[in-house]
């Protein structure tokens, strides 16, 4: 968007413009009148009263007052500021004022302070270059403006001149630029009464609200109202809606916008989630609450109590919260963390990551050490997947267990079974099950031979130390053929063993499946179902190394001892198989399919209807991510084995060319779900991308990450920073080093920017020097030593002769007495380099 469009979008009313012009004029007059007195006053004793009117002007940030207050504590700075005000005020021409401004590099008063004062004095020549306006200027590509650089004053004049070419009124321009870097609004939005739609909202990444009758009558016309008065008229006359109700609906439709923060609540009890709005309002009549917006949920498992003095704001559907409310709730820092987690510079990388992952399902971030590959992978994953996913589970409320009791009609007369009567049965071959069963457990009675079906259901009871079944109901249950062909029961223990034995345990969903096939209701057995949730992690991280193997990644035999100290070997699943299983189960749950891929078992077989459900839910399926750090250090063919082919998108589960394989240890069926994404990282200083496994290169997309000096400039260079010159030196040194490394070695062995990001926390010059020493001596020099171990002369050239002693066949590092001076020498170009 260009400045003209910004001015149209963020139109400033004539009334507000006139008010602000008067404030600027009043403050200027007051400043000039009291300047001699202010020369000897600090901010609190004089300047504060003069400038307090400026706080009413929206585009003058509060940071200006804080920075000015700090600057005015120094007597010489105060005198220089007063002199600057006099000179600017008496300037007859714009060019002369700009020349004065360029020389306005006053100690402790950088561009944010000086440009704002200049704007107060000459509002048609200057704009206040605070953080938000500077960010907007940069986004328009008007200049690469960094607020802490001493060259800023010249760059700032360039900004003033470029903006004046497009817009003569710099008050309007300042407001438009400031508004374009929009702060989000904070909204409490309830996911139904007592949060009854919360799981649905998290699952579908939405927030939904009601007003179904209105939606059914108006449909998309609901979005066409352009003003509140006509909207409220329709609500009152056609729907008889109370004012509070339709006022809240208007907020959801028109005031909430993309980028705003949503705080979801469970009534007046607690905050349960935080997300960011990602779409305009939409209609989904399949939802009970049919108006919704898409949301990127960042926190979904909160339980933050709502204080008594805020409960009144959480009684309705939607309410706008202030930053003060967030503080009282104790979630302001959490929201700031969410908003500040990802710098804007990474957005283009995230876009590339999304494109490649959507097409290939896996990507590798590669580049020199210290370019933020792992950091980017983790933050991308944080942005695109919740920490956990809840998979719905059905449990029998009374916590009873299910069993299968086999009867051989040639050995025992099954006609003795009568409803309401207890029958003693013998212990059979399956003795372990008798240790697990207890009074009240459900027993399905299977009669073999010519009957060959589930014949009765009863409850277990022990009398005089002997097992009994009290028959509840005799019925025509599923046949042996039905049981064998069923996707759930076909893999159960009694069916796999051909019903040879007496008593077999059943999993809860196997017992519920027999009831379903038998057309029996739980209440007929005096039972009921409750729905619970199993939380599974959506992200796993693994680091490859030369000895990492298939057995750790997919599955392998692990020794364990039994009660008699005998060594047994058990098949144990690795990290990759585990996340595949969890992603698959989350996908089935999301699609409404009540089946599960259990540990140590085959993939469940789905019916045509269930396959259709999964297929139609793939677009918004829950995402799972596996981050493989140092992927190039592992033996890929040994780690992935035969599964490397299954990574391809068209060979994933539910894809056109779906491939399912039998694993060598467990002999179970295995496939890779389509909602699992893999992000690998590799350090090109260890191994060139050209040397990695061909099969891996064919199946992965690749994104190169190189040293990014703009990231350092943005993160380190801030106005009013005492350590600014040291941080600037660090950036210059890194640039010089990398230029020489590219010339003397190659581009893959450059040094990344992330090593120097630790300087961000240094507020004083001494702290910055100490931190830079730590970085230099313990991280940068050892890395260079590794690179040029066999080339002492090249190492000396890279360091411009500093920090190293080079002999005939050796080199030693030395500690420079003048550390800063030595670094300045390293940053200088050598004469032979031109």
From TrEMBL:
The keyword Ligase does not apply. Gene3D superfamilies: P-loop containing nucleotide triphosphate hydrolases. InterPro entries: AAA+_ATPase, ATPase_dyneun-rel_AAA, Methyl-DNA_Rec/Restrict_Enz, P-loop_NTPase, PUA-like_sf. Residues 359-710 form the AAA+ ATPase domain. It comes from the Archaea. The keyword RNA-binding does not apply. Keywords: Coiled coil. Residues 3-41 form a coiled coil. SUPFAM superfamilies: P-loop containing nucleoside triphosphate hydrolases (SSF52540), PUA domain-like (SSF88697). GO terms for molecular function: ATP binding; ATP hydrolysis activity. This is AAA+ ATPase domain-containing protein.
